[in-house]
Amino acid sequence: MDDDIHAPTVASGPTSGAMPRDLSKLSMPDLMQEKERIEAELSALSSVLDTHGVTMNSTLTTFDGFPRDDIDIAQVRTTRVRIIHLRNDHKEVMSHLEKAVHEHFARLQNAPEAVITNGSTVPSQAPAPATENNNADAGTLARPFAKVNSVELRSPADQAGLKTGDSIRGFGDIHWLNHERLSKVAETVQQNEGRPLLVKVTRKNESGPGTTELNLQLTPRRNWGGRGLLGCHLVPL
């Protein structure tokens, strides 16, 4: 029997909008995995629409009300429905992620302050024992979301100390939860021309294994002699 030509050409998860697991019981790394899974499927389904030359809002009928014969209308409709479900799932995952981030920072703020004794930093109280989930959450919070692909000589990025191969963990207020495939980074750059932005970077050590975490001040500006406000090219991870 021939394949159903109306079926979506990419694999999909549950056909309902319900999440497969109780998100409130997932750790931050698990929530991040769920977020990435949904975003990957959304990207694949968007490609299906692209092959038909339509968007979520394109009309499926001709000017006189007849179904268009240049696209597979059944497939487009099925794909659109799946995208709507996935967008709702994505909102729910992001809500749980944001809640987990707030709770993590609340724990950090309530942690006992340290005092300096004889040149050594000593907690004023014994810290709470580390757990696997706490360590994983802390690592997820610092997760890089972009990589520096190139840096132009004498550009704002070059003067700030940014180097090719650096991983970006923070760009102003932008982090892995809200960068939206770097579109928010572009908005932040445009809105902060002439104002310094804190850029958190992870860089591989040149002299050996391991990495170094850096906080750089990057000021977007024009007329530095090249294109753009930064003079560097970032790619999402």
From TrEMBL:
Residues 29-106 form the Nas2 N-terminal domain. Keywords: Chaperone, Proteasome. Residues 148-203 form the PDZ domain. Residues 1-22 are annotated as: Disordered. InterPro entries: Nas2_N, PDZ_6, PDZ_sf, PSMD9. The keyword Secreted does not apply. The keyword Transmembrane helix does not apply. One of its GO terms (biological process) is proteasome regulatory particle assembly. One of its GO terms (cellular component) is nucleus. Belongs to the proteasome subunit p27 family. This is Probable 26S proteasome regulatory subunit p27.
